[in-house]
Amino acid sequence: MLNALFYKEWIKTRRIIFLLGVVLASLLIYTFIHTGQLFRVGGAVQVWVNIITKDFPLLPEFVRWFPLMAGLLLGLVQFIPEMTDKRLKLTLHLPLPETKILSSMLLYGMLILLAVLVVFYAVLYIGLSCYYPSEILAATTWQMLPWLIGGLLSYFFAAWVCLEPVWRQRVLNALIAIAGLSMYYMSAKSGGYIYFVPCLLLVLVAGFSFPFYSAARFKDGAQR
After folding, report:
1. What pTM does this model have?
2. Are 184 and 63 in contact, with CB atoms under 8 Å apart?
3. Total domains, the chain
4. Residue 132, domain extent
């Protein structure tokens, strides 16, 4: 039964997974071209000095938004069809506990998104290691960590908003989600998030439970 459920989720999301792969490849290619151009024009010494003494950004600005975009798109594509004509009712009537059904759906999306983000980070790290020492890459890892966690949280928030049956509450959920995600994408000096990461992880763990609340409201036929 779980295999059939995962296959259903794959049918819904395969196109967006392919699209994310294309965007990811394009983003990585551009980043490495951009980095190579910086070194050709300014030289390694000048680039390193700017990064170390002036906190010059290592990555193009729009790189930070890829995890957020990936999480939102995957969540919307996976859960909007469930709310079209209330198809979620059919899914919840499968011969499995309802919490297990929703957990499996969220687990599928989370694993897909984790795979995309791990490839995103790993290829960036390996590629940039040709230009920068490990100390600079370690600082960049701490800078990227909130973005990656925020990508996972954006997926849970997208599911939470989509599964909410009442539009007024859905709008409120979306506003809360925007406020919560803004914490993960604030501009900060290198190392500024180091001591805040545990709090971000706690919000992520809590965010996993939010779609279950909306699904319960849907099942109960909430009107407000």
Report:
1. 0.93
2. no
3. 1
4. 2-220
